[in-house]
Each structure stands twice: as C-alpha cells, then as structure tokens.
Amino acid sequence: MSEAMPSWRTFPEGLPIREILNRGDQAREAGDWIAAGNWYFHAKRRGSLEARDRARALMQTLEMLADGGDLDAKVLVAGLLLESQKQLPRAVALLGEAANSAVAEGMRELGFVLSNGVGVPVDARRANELFLRAAEAGDGYAAFNLAVNFHRGHGTGKNFRQFTKWLEFAANLGIPEACAVLGDQCSAKGMDAEALQWYVRAARSSHIPAMFAAAQRYRNGIGTAADPVQAVRWFLSPLDRGNGDGIHEAIEMARSMTIEQVREAGRLSGHSDEAELLLRR
C-alpha cells in the first residue's frame, strides 16, 4: 500500500471515541471532507451518536464531491443512504462505481449489500469475491466478513482453514469483532492467557462483550493473576456506549478495594466520576 495512504484508511485500533471525533473535527475544519466523513464513520461504528449526526451534516458537501466524481465521497454518500434506508438503488450504484475502481471501502460495502440483500437480491458468491479483493487490499472489516461467510458456508462451502486465515488477518488489523471471536476460540481451547489478550484488544476498541469478558477474567484470575483494578476498569468501560450492566459488579468489587485502586480503575476507564460514586457506597 502507498506510503501516502490516508490515516483514516487504517482501522483506529484502541483510539478513544473522543479522539476519533476530534480527528474528524480537525479534518472538517481543514476542509478535508473525505477524511472527516471517514473518521466520523469510524466513531459511528463504535456506537457514537455524535459521530452519526456529524457525518449526516456533511451529506450536502459529500453529494457535491460525489457528483464531481470523487470515489471516496461516493462510498460515504452510499453509506449514509444505506443507514437511512433511502434511495437504496442509488446507494448500490455508487458503491458499484467505487468497487469497479478498486476502492477497498467500496468493495467491502458492496459486498455487505450483496451478502445481506440490502436493496438487491442476495449474491453471496459475488460478495465474497468483493470481500476477498478488499481484504487483499488491506481492509480488515472485509476480511472479517469473508471469515464469517466461510464459517457459515454463505456463498461458498464451509472452510474452517479459510475462516481461521481471514479471522486472524482481521484480528491482527485490530478489528474488534474479529479479536473477540478469536478470544472465544482461544477460551474454548483452554488457552486462557491468549483469550484474555484478544478480549482486551477488542475491549480497547469499544467491543462491549469483550469488555465484560476481560473484566470477569481479571476478577476471577483466569489467564492472569486476579487484578481488581483492571476488572473494575472494564466493568466501567461499557458506560462509554451507554451500557451500565457492569455497575453492580463494580460496586461489589469496590467494597474490598482501596481508595487508590478504585480511583485508578476510574482513571483507566475514563470514568473517574463514576469511580468516585463507587467510593460513596
């Protein structure tokens, strides 16, 4: 891949949602609408409603760029149309133009549309061809989608070797869904230390089930020495995405922790205020 490849083309593994939003804002202020839109899409995939709204606010400008032939803009416009379930044939056509010009994101998104029959008949075989081309161009989400289809036998025969190959490819690029699945596979094989590493890697990119898996393993000392600070950290972290299911566990653990430990867990999770509330219970 080119050394001049824009940074937004690489999955922002481990970056906090706020930092991703900031990068989008900086690009927007600099007039780089394509970078801004892609940073917002990265944050939107993490569940950020702010990112969704900021991406939508770029629609008019992206439309003008797309009309002028900008292929990356066409992918972004198509993504916004698909999200709103409006003008689906146009969205598919825009993705087709980008895919035909070997834009990785266009190939991946058109593959998704064809794999799931969004506005078009399902064509899983063609979807897998697109996922493969995009994955070979370095797109981690395309690799994960391809792995899933090999596991399901969707558009191809079931092939565990190919499933593992593309799952590991996606996980090594930091795709959180792939990291979490790899964690599950390691766990099923009793490879607890390796499982924890993959869960933490997914958790750092806002994958909620992986956060809980990591928290429970740190609490119970599975694959590592018991670590209450890391456990409470990951029980609090889902609050980033409006999920408070770990609060009860955090409260229970905080009762046997020092003030310094609870505050450190709050700092690591980015939820220092919530950690202070734990100390009052």
What does this structure look like?
The protein is an all-alpha fold. The protein has a domain at 191-281. It has 17 helices and no strands. The chain has helices at 17-29, 33-45, 49-57, 59-67, 71-84, 88-100, 104-116, 124-136, 140-152, 160-172, 176-188, 192-203, 208-220, 228-236, 247-254, 259-269, 272-279. The protein is globular, with a radius of gyration of 20 Å. It starts with 16 loop residues before the first helix and ends with a helix.
What order do the helices and strands come in, and which of them pair?
Elements: H1 17-29, H2 33-45, H3 49-57, H4 59-67, H5 71-84, H6 88-100, H7 104-116, H8 124-136, H9 140-152, H10 160-172, H11 176-188, H12 192-203, H13 208-220, H14 228-236, H15 247-254, H16 259-269, H17 272-279
Helix pairs in contact: 1-2, 2-3, 4-5, 5-6, 6-7, 7-8, 8-9, 9-10, 10-11, 11-12, 12-13, 13-14, 14-15, 14-16, 16-17
